[in-house]
């Protein structure tokens, strides 16, 4: 779904639904320097940042807007959307994180090494790291955590290929797979790779009391209002000059569900930082950055698209003619102008142009005459008009989006009813197949293997049962391409296989593409280190986002205040 002012149905939100059904006055200076994110071919960065006046300052509290909240802080049990992941990265460290090229590199781990055929992965942890409760980080801890993942209805589907974890040393564990998994390390960059203390896992109230190795410790959590953290005094990382990290004394996260309100709060000095993909908030942030009133950084890597997800296992979209009709009737250029206010890229594939896996896969372009012909073909084949319900969440922006699309589809002769539901019910209905077409947003991971579980036939359950493959699309050619890409680390082979997957996806049409919104982080002019600092070994990090495929969840370990 299209705006961050609501909880979007991304990876962990959907998995929560599966769980439930199975058992949200800074100093003002003129911009002096600009820094970009991971470059996308043909894109124009709008970044406006201010150069540091000297070495990083230590101290101060950063106040950050988040658009939603998690239902708890145990990565083996709780749903983390982008906001939950942002908070999670403050308290927990991941086993791996993406470098500037979008490749997973060790973070808490010292090394993550596969055997020759990628059926075993050896993880060696860094020495001397402790959780904030004083517990040492060891291989036994990893075994405990991944046993909890394997037993969890929330996270087990994401590691179905993991058979067992074998301890081979105090800091070393071997992860044994049932089949080759060359991209396993990428799965450790998000919620699955966040490492909680065994004490937290054992605590009946552990979902409310996170204990990690991260740069901050949670002190106060007021549900749907705020999360407050303080610097972890035993944190293991230092910067390249030897200064103890994090630089900040603490980070306070405030829930602000309306994206424009969050921009206003930063402009007024009530908050220091926020992020958005909302068209209205993006326009406001752009204008403020141009006038020198705040800083802005735009994600330039792989990011989510907005689309309609179709239920291919039930009428009417079990019919190829119906899928052809809705694709041909969707005027994406008009949609981007009317809904996105011109603040979005064209989108007709999973992968963003300029990123390493982009393939210009053929897709049915807008053609009203061909759409009408497909509608007529459906009526002739099925003996009834093409009619369906479009499932959205119950928000003002979703209503606007749905009405624009409804008008386009009706112009081609379709009978379209809008059904608005509270976000969690919408997600649950989609996961169990209780829908025909639904508003959706997903697939922002730098490594496509992270999204493997949403596409394979094995995860397409019958209607009425929870299904990771929400479209219930079944295509052996897609399975073959995904498995071939998963079994190798050869970049050219992976690119070829993901191109084959992308082509086939646009033949099957489980997704009707709308647009690719801009993903922005904005900040008061006193904030430095808006993008992510170097990885522990000194390599440049993926500038914005990455964990769990979220473009707007980033580490604040090396963020500081120049005031």
Description of the molecule:
With 563 residues, this protein is an alpha+beta fold. It folds into three domains: 11-86 and 213-301 and 519-561, D-Maltodextrin-Binding Protein, domain 2; 96-202, Dipeptide-binding Protein, Domain 1 (Dipeptide-binding Protein, domain 1, Alpha-Beta Complex); 305-517, Roll (Dipeptide-binding Protein, domain 3). 26% of the residues lie in helices and 19% in strands. Helix 7 packs antiparallel against helix 9 (368-382) and helix 12 (476-486) packs antiparallel against helix 13. It is globular, with a radius of gyration of 23 Å. Residues 1-44 have low confidence and may be disordered.
Helix and strand topology:
Blueprint (H helix, E strand, L loop, with lengths): L10 H12 L38 E6 L15 H10 L4 E3 L5 E3 L2 E6 L5 E6 L13 H12 L11 E8 L2 E6 L20 H5 L13 E7 L3 E6 L18 E6 L3 H10 L4 E4 L2 H12 L4 E4 L6 E6 L9 H10 L2 H7 L5 E2 L22 H15 L4 E7 L2 H16 L3 E7 L1 H9 L5 E6 L33 H11 L4 H18 L2 E7 L2 E4 L3 E2 L31 E2 L2
Helix pairs in contact: 1-11, 5-6, 7-9, 12-13
